[in-house]
Amino acid sequence: MKLKLIVPVGLLVIGGLSACTGTDTPAATPAGNQQAAAAEATQAQEPGEKKKEEPLTGEVKEKAEQAALKKYPGVVKKSEYDVENPGMLAVEIEQSGGEVEVYLDKDYNVIKTKDEKGEAEDD
Question: Element (H or E) spanning 62, and its range?
Answer without folding.
Answer: helix 58-71
